[in-house]
């Protein structure tokens, strides 16, 4: 029996390595994860897919939206991917739908039972305020709690790094620090 059909399993979300572990099987084709070429291990079996670890790491910023076929609101999502694995369905009739529809028309991840189980390579998934609100409200509703309104936690057009840079420029002698760093390099 697969864990995804186990009574009492409520909700699971896996990001990157967590997504890979939710699959039925993980195969280290290149030996990059375990040090042993073609080593196979069983995953948790929540997602009917297999992850294959490869030699080249995928590193990319990604944007898209929750896939319309998930049954969840198609809110925008941005994040990044950094992984050695490639996750593929075990068969063409896999339970679930893609989780994210990328801007380039490709898809990422899997969504089963309207978000009961989600797997994705999108780091920073829960940094997306609107998505986080949708996800938490789904859990609140399921547990008989009142939903909360959407709250944007980031200032529009400005992030914490921009704030820090502005503060540093206002209170530090940046030219002096650069000169000091250059002198240390030449010692």
TrEMBL record:
What Pfam families would the database entry show? GATase_3
- What keywords is this UniProt entry annotated with? Glutamine amidotransferase
Please report the name of this protein according to its UniProt entry: Cobyric acid synthase
What the entry lists under SUPFAM superfamilies is as follows: Class I glutamine amidotransferase-like
List each copy of the CobB/CobQ-like glutamine amidotransferase domain by range.
13-131
InterPro entries for the chain:
Class_I_gatase-like, GATase_3
Q: Does the keyword Metal-binding apply?
A: no
Organism from which the protein derives: Scopulibacillus daqui
